[in-house]
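JOB MANIFEST
job_type = single_chain_structure
chain_count = 1
residues = 289
[input]
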Amino acid sequence: MKNQRRSSHEQRGGQLSTKIILPEVKNIIAVASGKGGVGKTTVTVNLALALQRQGANVGIFDADVYGPNVPIMLGIHRRKAAQGMAAIARRADAAPYIKPLTRFGLNIMSIGLLVAENQVIDPARSPEAVGQLVVQTLKDVLWGPLDYLLIDLPPSAGQPQAALVQRVPLRGVVIVTTPQDLSLLDASRSLLMFQEANVPVLGIVENMSYFICPNCQEKHEIFQRSARWRPEALADAPILGQIPLTTAVSQGINRANPLMHDRPDTPQAEAFTAVTAALLQQLAPPTSS
């Protein structure tokens, strides 16, 4: 191994080297959170479907090695580990070979499709190997022409986030949080990794922002905001939208038929449509004065 020639995808000086190239993918957007339980994957799936309704070709890469739930939310199950699909050391110029699954018109790949549902990948045993696994898998997928590829990241920071930030040309990152001090504080911590890598922060999606009573239609804020609800690190990040806490969203996920596919024209889906419009505005090239 010591005499093995280095290639462009190997480590140099302890750092993963050059960016990978996905030639048919126009925009790669990370979806991150500071902590688990804020509905990041639910937002990712519905946001992808909302972008699709705008006429875009969209894919999702589920990089959450801790809990790869995108397949389950879309009704895709793997009872046994995939044979011959796990990323291994390959030549830098090796062609992609993994066909993504298609669900609701979305191209889907997930670490959860490489392992069985009851298997666990333990990043603590070899964090660098986990980062390489995720990056190599992303590179090996035959994504086809996509306008947007959303990467659903694990919560917090570490691996594989660090490897993806180093190796993947991200157009920006969307931060998902709930409107409470602790969730926002954790989100601001994970945000520092993206800021240090000069990855643009496209904005914040405030999930479970409020609850609308199904009987009286009155709006209630479940999480009480304090006067300091936005940490300094998030002070300049725009709010892309506020997603209500509603049974329609959770029921769609439980039925593996997300809201933006099953009931896209309902009032409950309007929040995801609004987030999509705000995100596209952030991605639009600046107008010349």
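[summary]
The mean pLDDT is 80.
The two ends are 56 Å apart (CA to CA).
exit_status = 0
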